[in-house]
Specification:
The chain is an alpha+beta fold and 250 residues long. The chain has a domain of 68 residues: Orthogonal Bundle (Arc Repressor Mutant, subunit A). Helices cover 44% and strands 24% of the residues. It is built from 9 helices and 10 strands. The chain has a 4-stranded antiparallel beta sheet with strand order 3-1-2-9. Strands 5-6-4-7 form a 4-stranded antiparallel beta sheet, sandwiched between helices. Strands 8-10 form a two-stranded parallel ribbon. Helix 2 packs antiparallel against helix 3 and helix 2 crosses helix 4. It is globular, with a radius of gyration of 18 Å. Belongs to the TACO1 family. One of its GO terms (molecular function) is DNA binding. This is Probable transcriptional regulatory protein BRW62_00985. Keywords: Cytoplasm, DNA-binding, Transcription, Transcription regulation. One of its GO terms (cellular component) is cytosol.
Length: 250
């Protein structure tokens, strides 16, 4: 049931890079737009929107920016360039699969930017469906790592979920996306501090990256993709050991 998620480690290390590159505001604003588009503009009745707003406020995004993002999502803000959700797929070095979600007002520009990023790191942007079958969309609730794992299991059973990973000082609980709010509320009820809730594409199979050059190319591609303005999320099936991560100079 419990395990060590190497991809979660990569994700956490890249989060630091995101902050350094000043992309946090744009990424969180796009998350609000998407949540409002799918579930409406009322946070009280839209858990995804409520979560996105909480993250935005924690990052210091002004209220007027949050309101503008909600208006964009619900279509109440006039715009000459409507935003479109697009999913892209491709392969990086070593046959590693990448699944990318974008929110863009220009598909051609976004595709060209992605193609350039893939080509530079020895990969290629593929056709729709080339790697999508390797991933499933899940909800992930992150809480502080429990001191008593048996008690934590009782809380998980009450939340009707059984899959989790303990990564460093946090536990990541996996559930269906539709159950995110219920699982989050149950864990809160049992006294666990919920740090984050999110939708995440998780790979059904993984590719073990064992050499330094391939790891470097994969991580550089990940960096390049996440710094593009239109990109909302990036998932990969790469597994890179902690020891190799320490060796790689990105």
């Amino acid at each position: 049931m419990a395990g060590h998620s190497k991809w979660a480690n990569i994700k956490r290390q890249k989060a630091r890079v995101d902050a350094q590159k000043g992309k946090v505001f744009a990424r969180l604003s796009r998350a609000i737009i998407i949540a409002a588009r799918h579930g409406g503009g009322d946070p009280a009745g839209n858990f995804q929107l409520r979560s996105a707003i909480e993250k935005a406020k924690a990052a210091g995004i002004p209220n007027e920016n949050i309101e503008r993002a909600i208006a964009k999502g619900t279509g109440t803000l006039d715009s000459d360039a409507p935003l479109e959700e697009v999913r892209y797929e491709g392969y990086g070095a070593g046959g590693v699969a990448f699944l990318i979600e974008a929110l863009t007002d220009n598909r051609n520009r976004t595709a060209a930017d992605l193609r350039a990023a893939f080509n530079k790191q020895g990969g290629n942007l593929g056709e729709t469906g080339c790697v999508g079958w390797m991933f499933d969309l899940w909800g992930v609730v992150t809480v502080a790592a429990p001191h008593d794992e048996e008690a934590f299991l009782e809380a998980l059973l009450a939340a009707e979920v059984e899959t989790y990973d303990i990564v460093a000082d946090v536990a990541e609980v996996r559930c269906p996306v539709a159950a995110l709010e219920a699982v989050s509320n149950t864990l809160n009820h049992y006294g666990y501090h919920v740090l984050e809730t999110e939708r995440r594409w998780l790979s059904l199979n993984t590719v073990e990256v064992s050499d330094e050059e391939t790891a470097r190319r994969v991580l550089r591609l990940l960096d390049a993709l996440e710094t593009l303005d239109d990109i909302q999320s990036v998932a990969t099936n790469a597994v890179i050991s902690d020891a190799l991560m320490e060796m790689v100079d990105v």
